[in-house]
Amino acid sequence: MLDDKSFLKFADEIRTRLSFDMSGYKIERMKRRVDLLMKRYGFEDYESYLKVLSNDPSKEKEFFDRITINVSEFFRNPDKWERFKMFLKQEMGKNNNAHIWSAGCATGEEPYSAAILLEELNAPSTFTILATDLDSDALDFAKKGVYESRVLTNINQILLSKYFKKIDEDHWQISDLLKKRINFKRHNMLADPFEKEFYAILCRNVVIYFESDTKDKLYEHFSTSLKSGGILFIGGTERIFNSQRIGLQLIEPFFYKKM
């Protein structure tokens, strides 16, 4: 059976056996992804699929790849990145160091975009980036730093030649200079502790996958993790409706400041 009650039982078993809690995510979205994956292999009930996941590492990997889909590109919404660059420049004028967090970084396009901005501003090496994601495979991909041309469309030729090396007709290798700015680390936003004193947190088009209560908790945690005057950079479809209550001030679309 693929009804909602059976899926919730399946989700409980996933939490116990695979240490992954789906309860904070939008359940209908998770169920839809799992059901499509099951139908691909002809599974008629969650119990049968769960047995395979518990005993077949390749199927377990595919499961996590499917429910934590990573879609990104460099400098998504380019005009907003230009604005973020101005925030970084202002911070450089006030401090000699800054810690930036790219939360839910997927395959690395977001933190590398931030690293390019830091290099273009000649920021000192003490301006660093923590890049985290739940998906270990995505993090491994990000560490290698090889990207297809399709995710580089927002990068002009000057920056492309400066920070990438062409491997073949469709693949580019990121510069080691940018890698030095970034610490990639696995982190589960729904379970692991949050670090503190960030100047900026980038979490774009990630929180939309969570239920309302979980969204509220995450934004509250982000606020706590920012230092006073710090910037939260979110996605275009995301809004923080209780921002004042958790110490954040909307300064313009996409950007909140810690009060």
Rg, nearest Å: 20 Å
Query: Biggest sheet: strands, sense, closure?
Result: 7 strands, mixed
> What's the level 1 CATH class of the largest domain?
Alpha Beta
- Unreliable stretches, pLDDT < 50, 5 or more residues? none
Annotated CATH homologous superfamily of the largest domain: Vaccinia Virus protein VP39
The ordered H/E elements are HHHHHEHEHEHEEHEEHEEE
Strand content: 15-25%
The CATH topology name of the largest domain reads Rossmann fold
Report mean pLDDT, rounded to a whole number. Answer: 91
**Which of globular, elongated, flat, extended, rod-shaped describes the shape?**
globular
> Within the largest sheet, what's the order of strands?
6-2-1-7-8-10-9
Please report the distance between the alpha carbons of the first and last residues.
Answer: 50 Å
CATH architecture grouping of the largest domain? 3-Layer(aba) Sandwich
Describe the structure.
The protein contains 10 helices and 10 strands. Helix 1 packs parallel to helix 3 and helix 3 (46-55) crosses helix 4 (57-67). The protein has helices at 4-18, 27-41, 46-55, 57-67, 78-92, 109-120, 136-144, 157-163, 176-179, 212-225; strands at residues 98-103, 127-133, 146-148, 164-166, 171-174, 182-186, 198-203, 226-234, 248-252, 255-258. It starts with a helix and ends with a strand. The chain is globular. The protein folds into 2 domains: 4-67, no CATH class; 78-258, Rossmann fold. With 259 residues, the chain is of the alpha/beta class.
